């Protein structure tokens, strides 16, 4: 029962610390719980070196996942950490039950933190782009030419149906409404969609 309580403390404090921007009491409890777990299982002779190696390697993989694209390292690291708990002692079925209970409580804690307290993982702010480049925010992938609609321009080249027009001394790629338009003719801009400018001969 002590081992089960220690595993629950480790998982719950790990989730709590994950949603904090700095080292808190949850991190202190996590480290203390891990040390107590190692000492307890070591004293009873249940701790195997393979468990320690899997746990350390899994944590390293989880840290590397923050800097490598893809989720392979994170998944492998999480599986290694879980396997390290399963291999403690000789009774794998008992440890599987302990692990299932600990994970279930950790998931419940995660849901409560996210759903009811609106918590977000601070570490993701540094590795995930959250800025929006929408039109409402003032960003545009091209020059906004919607204000050209209704303006009168002059063809610099024949439009067959595409060509170049000039407006206020600027050269603009344009497309005629359908018919051929000769060079040096006045045209009115009737439609603008992105960089596509549609004109009609006056």
Automatic annotation (TrEMBL):
<keyword id="KW-1133">Transmembrane helix</keyword>
<dbReference type="InterPro" id="IPR056739">
    <property type="entry name" value="NfeD_membrane"/>
</dbReference>
<protein>
    <submittedName>
        <fullName>Serine protease</fullName>
    </submittedName>
</protein>
<dbReference type="GO" id="GO:0006508">
    <property type="term" value="P:proteolysis"/>
</dbReference>
<dbReference type="Pfam" id="PF24961">
    <property type="entry name" value="NfeD_membrane"/>
</dbReference>
<feature type="transmembrane region" description="Helical">
    <location>
        <begin position="52"/>
        <end position="83"/>
    </location>
</feature>
<dbReference type="GO" id="GO:0008233">
    <property type="term" value="F:peptidase activity"/>
</dbReference>
<dbReference type="InterPro" id="IPR012340">
    <property type="entry name" value="NA-bd_OB-fold"/>
</dbReference>
<dbReference type="Pfam" id="PF01957">
    <property type="entry name" value="NfeD"/>
</dbReference>
<dbReference type="InterPro" id="IPR002810">
    <property type="entry name" value="NfeD-like_C"/>
</dbReference>
<keyword id="KW-0645">Protease</keyword>
<dbReference type="InterPro" id="IPR052165">
    <property type="entry name" value="Membrane_assoc_protease"/>
</dbReference>
<keyword id="KW-0378">Hydrolase</keyword>
<feature type="domain" description="NfeD integral membrane">
    <location>
        <begin position="2"/>
        <end position="115"/>
    </location>
</feature>
<keyword id="KW-0472">Membrane</keyword>
<feature type="transmembrane region" description="Helical">
    <location>
        <begin position="95"/>
        <end position="117"/>
    </location>
</feature>
<feature type="domain" description="NfeD-like C-terminal">
    <location>
        <begin position="148"/>
        <end position="200"/>
    </location>
</feature>
<dbReference type="GO" id="GO:0005886">
    <property type="term" value="C:plasma membrane"/>
</dbReference>
<keyword id="KW-0812">Transmembrane</keyword>
<feature type="transmembrane region" description="Helical">
    <location>
        <begin position="26"/>
        <end position="45"/>
    </location>
</feature>
